Amino acid sequence: MKLDAKQLRITKPSDEQLAKIIRKPLWIVLDNVLDTYNIGGIFRLAEATTASGVILCGGSETPPSSRIHKAAVGTEEWVPWRYFSSAKEALLELKSQHSELQIIAVEQDKAAVDLDKLNGLIDLGRPVAIVVGHETEGVSREVLDMADMIVEIPMWGVNKSLNVIVSTAIVAYQVLHGGKGSVNRFSLW
Asked: Which parts of the sequence belong to the tRNA/rRNA methyltransferase SpoU type domain (predicted)?
């Protein structure tokens, strides 16, 4: 369906519209992601996947922000979000509310599992937090150490990394379509 600019930028959802959204047990955690266009793009992804929320951490800018709003095309109004001073703090809070939370860090690391091996390892009957990191430095070591799994996207070309939005989208859709189990609705916080 082709939408015009006005349809793409519906910015103020009603409480009734928000209440009708059935959220998946998926959170996207931004560990010090600094580029506001990346942040806005991740809000668009979170809205498209009906994620339970976006968690902004560290130096990540938060809404309201005209730069986030422009990239998010208003989806930051539709997706629940919270801010924490660190991704570790955010994940500990999520884990305290969802004891079965699976933490997946997206990073190039010697302990990483190739994305194609993720199939069947994720149980969507359990909540999932996908953590992505700073555009240059990546996911912090303390978060990598607490992750249940580190996932790396295979790179076959000369380039050895992808934009944080692209990486997040690839892993999110793999989790949602490749995982086993049913999608359950969980309370947000």
From this structure: 26-173
Specify whether the CB–CB gap between 124 and 25 falls below 8 A. Answer: yes
Query: Residue 76 has which token pair?
Result: 């930051």
Return the structure tokens found at 109: 């690391």
Bridge partners, residue 152, by sequence: 114
The tokens describing 60, both together, are: 């990540």
The whole-angstrom separation of Cα 112 and Cα 100 is 21
Tell me the CB-side half-sphere exposure of residue 137, using CA atoms within 13 A.
13
Residue 43 CA, distance from chain mean position: 8
Please determine, for residue 182, whether its predicted confidence score (pLDDT) is greater than 50.
no
- Asked, for residue 184, whether it belongs to a domain, the answer is no
- Give the domain extent around 135: 15-178
Environment class of 149 (CB within 10 Å of its CB; exposed 0-12, middle 13-18, buried 19+): middle
Q: What is the CATH number of the domain that holds 150?
A: 3.40.1280.10
How many domains does the chain contain in total? 1
Between CA 122 and CA 25 the distance in angstroms is 12
